């Protein structure tokens, strides 16, 4: 089993920054990819960013490219999402997810952290 705990959400003005953290515990040694997703009220959950666990491959949604940066610190089983130039449309609950099988299967999910961007 794997447990994921997100933190770092909050209220920020448009143009501001936040850094989200996701700490993984449990059976993390065979993890393939870590990702961040978000879900705004009344909308479906959408992909934000992902990073490979043993390499340096990253992937971003077009809506956040150039503003968000995903990184990892394997010694602490932690993945970060640095969010700059935040916009009101970035407001959502942000979820961390772990993919063990590859192919974007994302078998494990955190509880989410709320990010609210005021205009």
Describe this structure in words.
By secondary structure, the chain is mainly β. The chain has no helices and eleven strands. Strands 2, 4, 5, 6, 9, 10 and 11 form a seven-stranded mixed sheet that branches. It has a four-stranded antiparallel sheet with strand order 1-3-8-7, with no helix packed on it. Strand 5 and strand 6 (58-60) form a beta hairpin. It is globular. The chain starts with a strand and ends with a strand.
Question: Quick gist of this model?
Answer:
The protein is built from no helices and eleven strands. The chain has 119 residues and is mainly β. The radius of gyration is 13 Å and the shape is globular.
How do the helices and strands line up, and which of them pair or pack?
Layout: E1 2-7, E2 10-13, E3 18-26, E4 33-39, E5 46-52, E6 58-60, E7 68-73, E8 78-83, E9 92-99, E10 108-109, E11 113-118
Parallel strand pairs: 2-11
Antiparallel strand pairs: 1-3, 3-8, 4-5, 4-9, 5-6, 7-8, 9-10, 9-11
Fraction of helical residues: under 10%
Task: State the major sheet.
Answer: 7 strands, mixed
- In the predicted model, the low-confidence regions spanning at least 5 consecutive residues are none
| Rg, Å, rounded | 13 Å
Average pLDDT confidence is 93
Proportion of residues in β-strands: over 45%
First and last CA, distance: 40 Å
Number of strands: 11
Structural class: mainly beta
Give the count of helical stretches.
0
- Which shape, going by the Cα principal axes? globular
Order of helices and strands: EEEEEEEEEEE
């Amino acid at each position: 089993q794997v447990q994921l705990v997100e933190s770092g959400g909050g209220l920020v003005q448009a143009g501001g920054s936040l850094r989200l953290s996701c700490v993984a515990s449990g059976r993390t040694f065979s993890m393939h990819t870590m990702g961040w997703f978000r879900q705004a009220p009344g909308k479906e959950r959408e992909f934000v960013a992902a990073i490979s666990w043993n390499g340096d491959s990253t992937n971003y949604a077009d809506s956040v490219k150039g503003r968000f940066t995903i990184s990892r610190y394997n010694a602490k089983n932690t993945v970060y999402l640095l969010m700059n130039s935040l916009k009101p449309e970035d407001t959502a609950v942000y979820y961390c997810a772990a993919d063990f099988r590859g192919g974007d299967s994302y078998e494990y999910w955190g509880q989410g952290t709320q990010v609210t961007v005021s205009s």
